[in-house]
Amino acid sequence: MKLKIKENSVTLQEVKEAIEKEFGNKYKVGNYSSKVVSVAKSKLIGANVFVFKNKIIINGTFPTMITNIIFMLCFILLGIVIPLIIYFFGIS
Predict the structure, then answer these.
(1) What's the pLDDT score for residue 63?
(2) What is the DSSP pairing of strand 2-4 with strand 46-51?
(3) CA dihedral 43, 47, 52, 54 (to 10 degrees)
(4) Distance CA 33, CA 17 (A)
(5) CA distance 64 to 68
(6) This model's pTM is above 0.90
(7) Residues 6 or more apart whose Cβ sits within 8 Å of residue 61
(8) Per-residue model confidence (pLDDT) at position 45
(9) Rounded to an integer, what is the distance from CA 39 to the centroid of its chain?
(10) What are 5-41's pLDDT values in tens digits?
């Protein structure tokens, strides 16, 4: 989701504080990196909030880096390697 805002009207810290105030008891709010706020409902459900000069972008994703890495490894191993093995070494 993309939200347009006035240029330089909010900072990342203000957005983080507003999210904590509104949803602090339901969701875990933390810094994913220096430019991203991570909002997590569980280890698998969450969103990243990016704050730019004139817009705020909210992306649904895995809330932690380790779950992102595990997902990508599963995607690569199960989605690419296994079909290639079947293609090249499958039953002729």
Answers:
(1) 82
(2) unpaired
(3) -170
(4) 16
(5) 7
(6) no
(7) 46, 47, 48, 68
(8) 92
(9) 9
(10) 999 889 889 999 999 999 888 999 988 778 889 899 9
The single residue listed with the structure tokens 């698998």 is 44
Q: Decide if 30 contacts 7 (C-beta within 8 A).
A: no
CA 8 → CA 16, 20, 30, 82, distances in Å? Answer: 15, 21, 22, 48
Q: 36-74 burial by CB neighbour count: b if 16+ within 10 A, else e?
A: ebbbbeeeeebbbbbbeeeebeeeeebbbeebeeeeeee
pLDDT, residue 92, reads 61
Q: Is the dihedral of CA 68, 74, 77, 80 positive or negative?
A: negative
Is beta strand 55-61 parallel, antiparallel or unpaired with respect to 2-4? antiparallel
Q: At which residue do the structure tokens 């992306």 appear?
A: 59
pLDDT for 34-77, tens place per residue? 888 989 999 889 999 999 989 999 999 988 888 889 999 998 88
